[in-house]
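Dear support,

I submitted the protein below through the web form. The confirmation email said the job was done, but the results page showed an empty box. After a refresh the structure appeared. I'm attaching both so you can tell me whether what I see now is the final result or a partial one.
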Amino acid sequence: MDSSTEVRRQWGQPIHRSWPQIDVRWHYRHGFVYMTKWGYDPDPTRVIVLGIKTTDPRERTRSGVGVGSSVSEVLAGVGLLCPRNGQCDLSSRGGSRTTTFTVRNGRVVSVAVWIDTSYDDGGLGQPDPRCRPNR
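What the results page shows now:
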């Protein structure tokens, strides 16, 4: 099964699709999913998810951080010092995954999780456990 099938299963049909480059972005009410074709190995037809961005306050990390969290809650929850306005990133060991918190007026307005587009030779490393979704 490719990632687009799994995205449809979990998120439903997108409201809108866009193609910013060779990849595709599926837009939803509370965010988007950014996908690309795997490349040549192991399967050139397999679609994988490169990133997910959410503005849904129901989506949280295991430590409870998400949209609506204050910068002090981000610091307490994931140990990351964020500006009152701007972005702050938390990367996994090896940098294969990054979680980006976008902050306005001291509150998180979106959370995005991205994987390294080099695909890490298929390994993709483990994400920082503080960034895993609480599902």
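Response: this is the final, complete result; the empty box was a page-load delay. The radius of gyration is 15 Å.
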